[in-house]
Design brief:
Blueprint lengths: L1 E6 L2 E4 L4 E9 L6 E7 L6 E7 L5 E3 L7 E6 L4 E6 L8 E8 L15 E2 L3 E6 L1
Parallel strand pairs: 2-11
Antiparallel strand pairs: 1-3, 3-8, 4-5, 4-9, 5-6, 7-8, 9-10, 9-11
């Protein structure tokens, strides 16, 4: 199995920055992609960003484009999400996910991923 552990969440003021990390352990080889999703109270889980592991192609939700940057360290089996210019609407529990099975629908859909972390809370105050 694969274990994913997020870290780096916290409370920041609007306009501030945070960097989230997601460390994978266990069967970490052959990962196809990793992504970030978030869920705020009363809202559906939504896609934030994703990165293909081998090629490094990145994907961003329109709401975070230009503010967030996703990256990965293959040697450390770790994915990062640098979040700048944070807004109150970014407040949510952020989850990392890893895909190990081939998918056909792209990396912006949560059901394309096989493993999920426990989530880390990000709170942005106005």
């Amino acid at each position: 199995q694969v274990q994913l552990v997020e870290s780096g969440g916290g409370l920041v003021q609007a306009g501030g920055s945070l960097r989230l990390s997601c460390a994978a352990s266990g069967r970490t080889f052959s990962v196809l992609a990793m992504g970030w999703f978030r869920q705020a109270p009363g809202k559906e889980r939504e896609f934030v960003s994703a990165i293909a592991w081998s090629g490094g192609s990145t994907y961003y939700a329109d709401s975070v484009e230009g503010r967030f940057t996703i990256s990965r360290d293959n040697a450390k089996n770790t994915m990062y999400l640098q979040m700048n210019s944070l807004k109150p609407e970014d407040t949510a529990v952020y989850y990392c996910a890893a895909a190990y099975s081939p998918r056909q629908l792209g990396w912006t859909k949560g059901n394309q991923y096989d493993y999920w972390g426990q989530g880390t809370q990000v709170t942005v105050s106005s």
